[in-house]
Design brief:
12 helices, globular, about 15% strand, 10-stranded mixed beta sheet, alpha/beta, about 325 residues
């Protein structure tokens, strides 16, 4: 009797579907981003990211405890300094906001993994990811001098208790420079999660509100990747692996799931996907307007990232996803 092959047989019961599911999202896959600001008792909601806050260090600690209690294994810290300058001093100073937050979290929740975004755009007065030529209004970052700033920043973060260094500025050679710096400073066991394929994306808009990192002029297309390029991402993978990266990241995630897959296929290293601010805000806006089922859309989206090859998912949905997964028994 036709048809002989009936795939629907394995879809007929919820438990059966669960048994044969190929891709399973778990709380262990998630990393929660946090934005640290100076002061005390501060929890300022980011207008373009409902449910996401700029937090003072004491509030960061409270969030870290909640994250850990939900079973999420890691956070990634971003910092908004009191003052900005051409030397990005707040990024690498021992009393920088990320350094303070990392130390406080490590003392309060020692088992929680702390990742630090190792970049300079939040800390420079012009909003670009490194040194610029004097008088340059195009945003073309001077690559090699910037490597020295990134090296100093990574060492300072490791000294503060950061477990994983995550350079995101897309400077040529930044993985090797940071690896050399960390090793010389005695942090041989501190891994590097490289933003290997970070595209010059329009999806970053709300993040720039949260991190107060909008460039004052020009744009970042001279160092972040062109959205049309795939082979270039694989070249970046090859370089980062050769330079000593321990994990690789693709950013953004939603419009770049093919890149996640290609990066996964090209390397034996764990792959992270950053579910960025614009992706988060679109879902939140649609959900708040009653246009979509937030839980189902979020879980489908995160599962899609994992199906594409992501071993880690950095997402502002992490806490909600962890609660939903707990209800589902995952």
């Amino acid at each position: 009797m036709f048809p002989i092959h009936r795939p629907r047989r394995l879809r007929s019961h919820p438990q059966l579907r669960r048994m044969v599911r190929e891709t399973v999202l778990t709380t262990s896959d998630l990393v929660y981003p946090l934005f640290a600001v100076p002061g005390k008792g501060i929890a300022k909601e980011v207008k373009s990211m409902p449910g996401v806050y700029q937090l003072s260090v004491d509030k960061i600690v409270e969030e870290a405890k909640e994250v850990y209690d939900l079973g999420i294994p890691a956070i990634i810290l971003f910092g908004i300094p009191q003052d900005k300058d051409l030397e990005a001093t707040g990024a690498w100073h021992d009393c920088g906001i990320v350094q303070k937050a990392a130390s406080a979290v490590k003392q309060a929740v020692p088992e929680l993994i702390i990742i630090a975004d190792t970049c300079l755009c939040e800390y420079t007065s012009h909003g670009h990811c490194g040194y610029l030529e004097v008088g340059d209004l195009t945003g073309r970052v001077l690559n090699d001098p910037t490597l020295e700033l990134l090296k100093k920043t990574a060492i300072s973060q490791a000294q503060a208790g950061v477990d994983i260094i995550a350079p995101s500025g897309m400077m040529d050679g930044f993985v090797q420079a940071i690896r050399i710096g960390l090793d010389e400073a005695g942090y041989l066991d501190t891994p590097i999660l490289s933003y290997t394929a970070k595209y010059a994306s329009s999806y970053y808009g709300p993040f720039r509100d949260a991190a107060e990192s909008t460039p004052q002029f020009g744009d970042r297309r001279t160092y972040q990747m062109d959205p049309g390029n795939t082979r270039e991402a694989l070249k970046e993978v090859e370089l980062d692996v050769a330079e000593g990266a321990d994990m690789l990241m693709v950013k953004p995630a939603l419009a770049y799931m093919d890149i996640i897959w290609r990066v996964k296929e090209a390397s034996q290293l764990p792959v992270a996907a950053y579910n960025v601010s614009g992706e988060y805000s679109m879902i939140k806006a649609a959900a708040l307007n009653g246009w979509i089922d937030e839980q189902r859309v979020v879980m489908e989206t995160l599962t899609g990232f994992k199906r594409a090859g992501a071993d880690l998912i950095l997402t502002y949905h992490a806490k909600d996803a962890a609660r939903w997964l707990a209800k589902l028994g995952n």
